Structures are given as C-alpha cells and as structure tokens.
Amino acid sequence: MKITFKLYATLQHLLPSDAVNNAIEIEVPDDVTLHQVIDRFNVQHKDAHLVLVNGRYYDEEARDQPGILKETDVIAVWPPVAGG
Fold first, then answer.
1. What residues make up the domain containing 25?
2. Sheet of 50-53: strands edge to edge?
3. 15-59: per-residue pLDDT in tens?
4. Average pLDDT over residues 50-76
5. What's the predicted TM-score (pTM) here?
6. CA-CA distance, 49 to 19, in Å (whole number)?
7. What residues contact residue 75 under an 8 Å CB cut-off, 6+ apart?
C-alpha cells in the first residue's frame, strides 16, 4: 500500500533528495509497524518523539503493533524539542 512519510525539524535531512515539503510517498506492506517505517529512514527511536498518523498520536508501545496503517495514511514524525 502507498502511504506518505514526513519528517520535521532536525530529522528532515534523513529523507531522500526527492522528498517534497518534508514528505515522500512510499510503498509498504499491509502489516508494517510504525517503527518499521521509521527504521527504514534511519530515524533513531529516541529521536522519534512525536509520531502522528493522520494527526493522531501513537505512543511508543503502539508503534510496534502491525495493521495500524491504511492506504493513503500520512505518518508525521517530530524530534524532541528543547527550549521553552
């Protein structure tokens, strides 16, 4: 199935050069986990602080569950942010 994968802030450099607006469309198996998609782009789990699928947050435990993703879903990943 095809999904869109987005990386933001200090993670965006991990996307391939053909990414547009911090996003790339990719093909993944139906039973892929969020961590497997994140791993595909060499994002360290500690750096994937905020993981959203279509705007819904998934915690660390949920990211290892297969079957969450559906065709055309959008995964967005942000690193931890310092400051305040």
1. 2-78
2. 23-27, 2-7, 74-78, 50-53, 56-57
3. 999 999 999 999 999 999 999 999 999 999 999 999 999 999 999
4. 97
5. 0.93
6. 21
7. 3, 4, 5, 6, 34, 37, 38, 51, 52, 53, 69
Two tokens at 68?
């969450």
* Structural domain contains residue 84: no
Residue 55 belongs to a domain with what CATH number? Answer: 3.10.20.30
77 half-sphere exposure, CB direction, 13 A CA radius: 30
